[in-house]
Amino acid sequence: MVRPGERDAGSAVPCADPQGAPFLPTRLAVPAGPVTFLRRERLVDHLDQALRTPLTVVNGAAGAGKTLLVADWAARRDRPVAWLTTEAGDQGPGMFWAYLLQALRAAGVPLPSGIGCPADAGRVDRTLLTRLATELNTLGPPVIVVLDEYDRVTDPEIADQLEFVLHHAASGVRLILVTRTEPLLPLHRHRTAGDITEIRNAELAFTPEEAAVLLDLHGLRLPVPVAEALVERTRGWAAGLRLCALAARENPDPEAYLKQFEADRTAVADFLLAEVLERQSPETQDLLLRVSVLERFLPELADALTERSDAEGILAGLHRGNAFVEDLGHAWYRLHPLFGEILRAHLRMRCPGLEPVLHRRAAQWLRRSGMLAEALGHGAAAGDWEFTAGALVDDLAIGQLFTGLRSDDFTDLFSRMDPEATSPATDLVRAARELSRCELDRGLTHLRHAERSLAGEEDRARAQDEPGPAAARLSCLLLEALAARLTGSPARAEQAAGTAERLCEQVPAHLLDRHPELTALLLAHVGSTRLWAGHLEEARAALSLVAEGSDGVSTALPREDSLGRLALIDYLNGWLGRAERKAMAALTVSERYSLPQPSGFGVARLVLAAVAVDRGELRLARAHLDAAAAAPPAMRDPVTEAGRALATARLLLARGDTRAAVAAAEPAVAADVASPWAEGHTALVASAAHLARGRPEAAADLLHAVPGHQPVCAVGEARARLAAGTPLAAIELLDGLHPESPSGPAVTVRALLVRAEAAHAMGDQAAVRRHLAQALQEARRERLRRPFAEAGGWLRPVLGTAPLRGLAAGWLTSEPAGPAHTGPPRPEERPPVVEELSGRERDVLRRLDRMMSTEEIAADLCLSVNTVKTHLKSVFRKLAVNRRNDAVRRARELRLL
Q: N or C: which end of the chain has fewer CB within 10 A?
């Protein structure tokens, strides 16, 4: 008796499907690969390993290379593989199983005719499946079955039947599903049991090295960077790479083509539109076209663009279906880059004029959601500059044009602003851009326009008893303080800061908390103008609040800037070690956030150069000045320009070029008020030039005229009076210095040397030795050598006498401190550090001191082991040692630890 749904068990093997049509041999044949197919051994090895599990799923997007990969692997097997390409037109389970049985027989699997064959295209009897599973379980080696394009199987009944056979065939079958979507099988059970192998899009993607080989197979011998850029743009998508290679091969300049081809005008576009977009429902096509204007998107944002509420389900389905929609996690999605390019071009063609509307909707949604940077980008893309500038100003984020990792992006974005756009916000943004480039006249013109407009708005708000534009006013005051800094106007800066402090009470607290850079910038501007005016302690108070304040990327540049100026204050007061530590800390802030060095105003390098000159490390000083000059353009204010002139002039003096030093010390620094310390140090350089030319009276008179009673100038004048033959006048000047002066060793050592020289002139050798001993002890702690070189020829013979010889030996003079000895050199005999350690090198050194291994240091600092080794080599070279223990010992001697 013949059971319904199957042929007579004793009948011959059928040669037609249940509908009576001959079996199509193309559906049972392993596809052949193109001549340019690239076999990737890592994927072949993975498929080889997949034979250890009953089920393998190769799941990837259209054109990901799934079928070619599995076909190439199957063709190289030492035993036949049953291959079936499924079709959407199959009329139910009966047709599917009839074809699968035929595929097994075509592959040479010895199935007995008693298994039967479905006679009804729409159904199959469970007993046929049972006999098939039993037969497969009794065969020898497992039968390999490949179901290509399995995503076309949408009937849950077929999936249940396939799972039944797979389960009961046990180790007799190895099933490989090639699919674009998650297959209709209980994959969670297989994953739990560990009997499934999965190869997905990420693994199918070409690496840059594989892409370079593929291009070579197409006759394109191109540099690896070109391949890397192409892989980045295509995300390693196999079909995209092949289509691009074919098109480039026909182009006279393949390399240029691959760098800048227009995706919407290539075969890639035809492929994606036909294979992905046109397979979707009208609602899904509409969503894809609209979200193509976004770099990334949430379902709620997509709903705002479509004005529907179905995005969440559609996006999840597109991602599951490998429809070139990538899940970024936390509900965020993005389109494949090439797919996005093509969809945008298609959107412009299908819906002209819609793109700006979508950008505007996105900008408004993103602003409401607190995502300012993305809102600004879409506002600019919409050409709505009043909205875009207003969003930046109202969010109190105008300070981000001067600081933070996005400042360059914002500056570039607003560089495209329509000159016809007029509002207080657009004027403020224009003022900020001009002031950031130190274009004072143009910046102040825009700032005054904004202030007048805001004054009118405030009048209207008061008349209607409404709150005024507090955020915009506060932004105005920030720019006013910056302008005051750039022009060296402390009174204007103090006034702007005072008004801003009162205005902060009218601004929502959450905005101030979100933008700590605004307060940091205001304080930095005020502190800098105080520094310029010579109010060093008041400047230190303001700058310290910034340096010790909020720690984060938004305040990184103000903190670096403030640390650099605090270092300059210490240098001006003669504290070299303190100045060096603060300057190095400033550079470390930049390194931590990968900011340009120097960034902001870039004073730290200039301070390090000046410190190096006083230590006699002239090559290092030159290196710091060169590094500052070679860095990206930094903002310039009077403090920066005077600091650069000071460091350069002192280096030229140390090299004996007095004429060039005087010229370098007198730059055209434009400022509303004069700076006492800038005038004083300019006079010191000119005074040194007079002394070198044998004009001590002129040198003394020059310094005597400097206002402010600066200790360093008084010491310089005393030195000139001594050179003029009036030692008593020199001593009187030194005695007049305030005993509570904050002066450090760079000043006090010079004063002691003048006293010692005066005592030497008067024949008081005991006083000479006493003053020199004190000078040597203070100078040694700071490695301060330059004052001794300035002192003149009388000093060297005196330093050769005991006990002064021992105090000077090793660090100031090359003579050993005592009798020759063997063994490791004493600390004072080692050469000084001729190049400063970077912030990262100091980090490595501190961990050496804690006896951490190279691997532990790398892990602690989030660096590679090779990078740590490079830093170690540099530390050893700079400290003139060869071993870790010696480096730590040497660092302690130099007080680096």
A: N
CA 666, CA 638: separation in Å to the nearest integer?
12
- What is the C-alpha to C-alpha distance for residues 310 and 302, in angstroms, rounded to an integer? 9
Handedness of CA 245, 250, 253, 258 (dihedral sign): negative
* Beta carbons of 572 and 741 less than 8 angstroms apart: no
Q: Which residues pair with 196 in a beta bridge?
A: 55
Q: What is the DSSP letter of 399?
A: G
Phi-psi region of 158 (alpha: psi -120 to 50; beta: other; left: phi over 0): alpha
pLDDT at 694: 87
Identify the burial level of 815 via C-beta atoms within 10 angstroms of its C-beta, where 0-12 means exposed, 13-18 middle and 19 or more buried.
middle
Is residue 47 classed as helix, strand or coil in its secondary structure? helix
Q: Measured between alpha carbons, how far is 297 from 362 in angstroms, rounded to an integer?
A: 9
CA distances, 859 to each of 583, 843, 844, 855 (Å) = 27, 13, 11, 6
Picking from 338, 327, 322, 319, the residue whose alpha carbon sits closest to that of residue 229 is 338
Structure tokens at 777: 């002890």
DSSP 185-218: S-HHHHHHHT-EEEE-HHHHSPPHHHHHHHHHHT
Give the CA distances from residue 403 to residues 168, 336, 446, 600, in Å, rounded to whole numbers and listed in that order.
66, 32, 21, 8
How far is Cα 557 from Cα 403, in angstroms, rounded to an integer? 6
Tell me the three state secondary structure of residue 394.
Answer: helix
pLDDT at 404: 64
**Residues in a beta bridge with 174:** 144
Taking alpha carbons only, the member of 28, 45, 133, 132 closest to residue 81 is 28
**Dihedral sign of CA atoms 860, 866, 872, 874 in order:** negative
Identify the CA nearest to 376 among candidates 365, 391, 386, 397: 391
Integer distance in angstroms from the first to the last C-alpha of the chain? Answer: 96
Token pair 């730290």 is at which residue? Answer: 604
Residues of 604-641 as b/e, b for ≥16 C-beta within 10 angstroms? bbbbbbbbbbbbbbbebbbbbbebbeeeeebbebbbbb
Coil, helix or strand at residue 457: helix
SS (H, E, C) 229-291: HHHHHHCCCHHHHHHHHHHHHCCCCHHHHHHHCCHHHCHHHHHHHHHCHHHCCHHHHHHHHHH
Residues sharing a CB contact under 8 Å with residue 769, sequence separation 6 or more, in sequence order: 798, 801, 804
Number of residues that make up the chain: 897
Please give the angle made by the CA atoms of 602, 406 and 315, to the nearest 5 degrees.
160
How do 325-329 and 332-335 pair as beta strands? antiparallel
Phi, psi of 174 (to 5 degrees): -125, 110
> Which residue in this structure is represented by tokens 């940077």?
373
User: 406, 300, 314, 403: which is closest to 361 by C-alpha?
Assistant: 300
DSSP state of 554: G
Ranges of the chain whose pLDDT falls below 50 = 1-11, 597-598, 817-834
pLDDT tens digits for 411-438?
A: 889 989 988 888 999 999 999 999 988 8
Please give the Cα distance from 729 to 501 (Å, whole number). Answer: 50
What CA–CA distance (Å, rounded) separates 340 from 295? 9
Cα 301 from Cα 304, distance rounded (Å) = 5
Task: Report how far apart, in Å, the C-alpha atoms of 716 and of each of 657, 680, 855 are.
Answer: 19, 10, 52
Scan for tokens 């191109």, then name that residue: 222
Cβ atoms of 730 and 702 within 8 Å: the answer is no
The pLDDT of residue 466 is: 58
Q: pLDDT tens across 524-551, in order?
A: 999 999 999 999 999 999 999 999 988 8
Q: State both tokens at 820.
A: 């020759």
